[in-house]
Specification:
The protein is an alpha/beta fold. It has helices at about 20-25, 40-50, 65-70, 105-115, 150-165, 220-225, 240-245, 260-265, 315-320, 335-340, 345-360, 400-405; strands at about 10-15, 30-35, 55, 80-85, 120-125, 165-175, 185-190, 375, 385-390, 390.
Length: about 400
């Protein structure tokens, strides 16, 4: 019998609950050292990986020399450094304070570690909101036109990488296109210092029949009838919220309620513009899950179980993110949800790992390097509608029903 292929070592920054790391490991990589500041995520890592070297303090308080020593690797010979700097400062759900939020400044700490370790390649992931963030706020009187421009933060980060010798391929992707049972858009930066071009694969699944691809995997694939919940911890809705959610059919939302109940339950939110599709939302087994959030029991970002009138559990959320059932999350229930909701889908981490593997084994270019680039690979996907032609739609219609084909982007 032949020996197993040797694992490719990497350094993990902003490791969180290790969703990205687990995906990379499935693609043939090996986590050599992790850096994580959040106390609950540290407990999760130590519980599941007790022998893994772990720097349990802010990345600001470590440096490349320490990480190289703990990983047993040498500067310039590290195959890969990965990480997802805190995304709350860029998320469209949050206040989007960008670099005014200390967490937003962590992207430059990532650049610093790359410069100090000089890996052959790196992967930095973040939320889609990073695409539009500006370096400085328009309210800052000292800000220049370039600094407040749409997307100036990402352009600056890429330029910082280029200044230390890396070219960057930035991919805007959606995990649902690759077989994940969840809609989740992410920005993936893949850099290398050998002038190579990273190529992210096209979708392997689709909700458009003409694409000729397997249909999207659904919530039923993740937590259907044979699902055994490894962690039934629950942040449930309040009695008032449960009262209204009990009236919503599987796959429906506030549109499914009688008009007088809509107004009563939503208050001022009822008159706001926009679809508000997540308000009083009950999930459907027939469709992919919406993006797993850190607090599934909010009325406006409701993740109510399809058949039971309750919020999804920690175990269900983790299964949607495709964590192994044996992976145990530590901390309070709220802390567990924060770790799961902030994680990279494991499947997406595996796809990224395969891209990096191809990049590392490809031959470098002799000619002038291709410029860094940003590529969108069908990131915005609409899998369903809640309202069409004056009729509220729930989850009781065919996956490839006509309105889905019309609404799919």
């Amino acid at each position: 019998m032949g020996s197993s292929p040797e694992k490719v070592p990497f350094i993990s920054l902003f490791s969180g609950a290790m969703g990205l790391d687990l995906g990379l490991e499935q693609a043939g990589f090996e986590t050599r050292v992790a850096v994580e500041f959040d106390a609950d995520a540290v407990k999760t890592i130590r519980h599941n990986r007790p022998t893994l070297p772990l720097v349990d303090r802010s990345i600001e308080l470590t440096d490349g020399e320490e990480l190289l020593r703990l990983s047993g690797l040498k500067r310039g010979e590290v195959p890969l450094v990965v990480g997802g700097p805190p995304c709350q400062a860029f998320s469209v759900i949050g206040k989007r304070r960008g670099l005014e939020d200390r967490r937003g400044q962590m992207v430059y700490e990532f650049v610093r570690i790359i410069n100090e370790t000089q890996p052959r390649s790196f992967v930095m992931e973040n939320v889609r909101g990073m695409l539009s963030m500006s370096l400085r706020s328009t309210s800052d009187p000292a800000a220049t036109k370039e600094e407040v421009a749409h997307g100036s933060l990402l352009r600056d980060v890429i330029q910082k990488f280029e200044a230390i010798g890396y070219r960057v391929d930035c991919f805007v992707v959606n995990a649902v296109n690759y077989g994940a049972p969840q809609q989740r858009e992410r920005v993936i930066l893949i850099g290398n210092r050998e002038g190579k071009v990273a190529n992210f694969p096209g979708p392997t699944h689709s909700n458009r029949e003409p694409d000729g691809l397997p249909p999207f995997r659904t919530l039923e694939h993740a937590i259907g009838k044979d699902f055994v919940d490894p962690d039934p911890s629950l942040l449930n809705f309040s009695p008032r919220k449960l009262h209204y959610l009990a009236m919503v059919p599987e796959g429906g939302n506030w549109r499914s309620l009688p008009p007088e109940i809509q107004k009563e339950s939503m208050g001022k939110s009822w008159g706001l513009k926009g679809g508000r599709s997540a308000y009083w939302r009950r999930l459907s087994f027939a469709f992919p899950s919406p993006t797993v959030v850190t607090m599934p029991n909010h009325a406006s970002t409701s993740m109510c179980h399809p058949r039971e009138t309750r919020a999804i559990t920690v175990g269900e959320a983790a299964a949607i993110q495709e964590f192994p059932s044996s992976w145990s999350f530590r901390g309070t229930t709220q802390a567990k949800f924060r770790q799961v909701g902030n994680a990279v889908p494991v499947r997406l981490g595996e796809i990224v790992g395969k891209v990096v593997s191809q990049l590392l084994t490809a031959q470098a270019f002799d000619e002038v390097a291709t410029p860094s680039r940003i590529i969108h690979i069908r990131p915005h996907v609409r899998t369903r509608s809640f309202w069409k032609n004056g009729v509220a739609l729930s989850g009781d219609h065919d996956y490839y029903a006509g309105q889905l084909r019309e609404d799919a982007s």
